[in-house]
Design a protein that fits this description.
GO terms for molecular function: structural constituent of skin epidermis. One of its GO terms (biological process) is intermediate filament organization. By secondary structure, the chain is mainly α. The chain contains one helix and no strands.
């Protein structure tokens, strides 16, 4: 009896071992399949991320070039602005100097005009006095002429 039981146990153990080997084999196959699919997914993800990384690096490089170009343009604009501000300041100073000179010349001309008017008024008075004297002399000459003509006759 013991023998039959041993035989039975050996069969049971062999059957369980076969089932275990089958389960282990299927599990191993499933694990390998899962591992392969995960590896393929990871490869695809790496490729996708690598492409995204490459595009991002290109965008960063392009943005850096754009930043450099815009920075240069800003610096150029600042320099040009400084030059224009200096030119405006210089023009304002020159304009103020020219205006000041013009005002001085205007004052001089107005003073000269006023003096010329005064001189003219003096000359007109003198002319009137001379003309009055001439008129008096003309009358006196005419009177003497009449007297002389009267004596001759």
């Amino acid at each position: 009896m013991d023998n039959s039981r041993d035989l039975n146990m050996d069969c049971i153990v062999a059957e369980i071992k076969a089932q275990y080997d089958d389960i282990a084999s299927r599990s191993r196959a499933e694990a390998e399949s899962w591992y392969r699919s995960k590896c393929e997914e990871m490869k695809a993800t790496v490729i996708r991320h690598g492409e995204t990384l490459r595009r991002t690096k290109e965008e960063i490089n392009e943005l850096n070039r754009m930043i450099q170009r815009l920075t240069a343009e800003v610096e150029n604009a600042k320099c040009q602005n400084s030059k224009l501000e200096a030119a405006v300041t210089q023009s304002e100073q020159q304009g103020e100097a020219a205006l000041s000179d013009a005002r001085c010349k205007l004052a001089e001309l107005e003073a000269a005009l006023q003096k010329a008017k005064q001189d003219m008024a003096c000359l007109v008075r003198e002319y009137q006095e001379v003309m009055n004297s001439k008129l008096g002399l003309d009358i006196e000459i005419a009177t003497y002429r009449q007297l002389l003509e009267g004596e001759e006759q």
